[in-house]
């Protein structure tokens, strides 16, 4: 039986692997927007990351589970991992709306992702269905957002809300490179995730 959340956050990502940048953005959004729950949804097949081999969704989903376990407001969902084909946010938001009718949905992204939003599938429909929270991220100035969104309906632009979070210059790309090169990843991600990566020999 689905819960009846009124204000629901979705944290989407490839999470290859999940790290403190993701967790700090999600927790910041939860607090700032009084979200009752934030659901982390690892992408099954991200359409924009076709250049390199993405880690098996099963591993990414387990790491996400391990990362959110200590936060009672956080949860995970495997809906994107289970859906065949590319993972489009529009399909995910539609599915979440069906699962939690009446919930106001807040989709949490980092600045880099939101700056690319015009390339997302059915962006106008998406902005009618949910709010976007754009967390600051080092290297991706949100000041460019207004200019970037010049072509879209001002009512839709209002649906994108910038949010200041403590700057963490952490990326999954950097973590994968560190593992490959034998450099430490400790303190960049939760310890159970670090242990999982090392035990399974991921990113070698
Ligand atoms: P990769 O380097 O593989 O692209 P990533 O660190 O960017 O990985 P993603 O899974 O691509 O992580 O990102 C998921 C979401 O989290 C995106 O909306 C992204 O902007 C946001 N995000 C990731 N890292 C940070 C960070 N350090 N600060 C704020 N937001 C972040
Ligand atoms: Mg990324």
Task: Produce a short descriptive summary.
This protein has 204 residues and is α/β, with parallel strands linked by helices.
**Total number of distinct structural domains:** 1
Number of helices: 10
Beta-strand percentage range = 15-25%
Radius of gyration: 16 Å
Written description of the protein model:
The chain is α/β, with parallel strands linked by helices and 204 residues long. It has one domain (7-170): HUPs (Rossmann fold). The chain is built from 10 helices and 6 strands. It has helices at residues 20-32, 57-68, 79-82, 89-99, 111-115, 123-129, 145-148, 154-157, 172-181, 191-200; strands spanning 7-13, 37-42, 74-76, 104-110, 131-135, 160-163. The protein has a 6-stranded parallel β-sheet with strand order 3-2-1-4-5-6, sandwiched between helices. α1 links the parallel β1 and β2. α2 runs antiparallel to α10 (191-200) and α4 (89-99) packs parallel to α6. The protein is globular and about 50 Å long. The model has no long low-confidence stretch (mean pLDDT 95). Residues 13-16, 21-22, 25, 109-110, 112-113, 135, 137, 168, 170-173 line the site of adenosine-5'-triphosphate.
């Amino acid at each position: 039986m689905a819960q009846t959340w009124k204000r629901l956050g979705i944290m989407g990502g490839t999470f290859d692997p999940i790290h403190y940048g993701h967790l700090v953005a999600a927790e910041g959004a939860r607090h700032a927007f009084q979200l009752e729950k934030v659901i982390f949804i690892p992408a099954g097949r991200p359409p924009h990351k076709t250049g390199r081999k993405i880690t098996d969704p099963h591993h990414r989903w387990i790491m996400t589970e391990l990362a959110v376990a200590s936060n009672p407001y956080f949860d995970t969902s495997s809906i994107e991992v289970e859906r065949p084909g590319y993972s489009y946010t529009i399909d995910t938001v539609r599915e979440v709306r069906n699962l939690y009718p009446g919930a106001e949905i807040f989709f949490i992204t980092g600045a880099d992702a939101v700056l690319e939003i015009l390339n997302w599938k059915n962006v106008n429909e998406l902005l009618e269905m949910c709010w976007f929270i754009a967390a600051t991220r080092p290297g991706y100035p949100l000041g460019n957002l207004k200019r970037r969104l010049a072509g879209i309906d001002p009512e839709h632009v209002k649906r994108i809300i910038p949010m200041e979070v403590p700057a963490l210059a952490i990326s999954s790309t950097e973590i994968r490179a560190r593992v490959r090169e034998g450099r430490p990843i400790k303190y960049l991600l939760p310890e159970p995730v670090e242990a999982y990566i090392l035990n399974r020999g991921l990113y070698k």
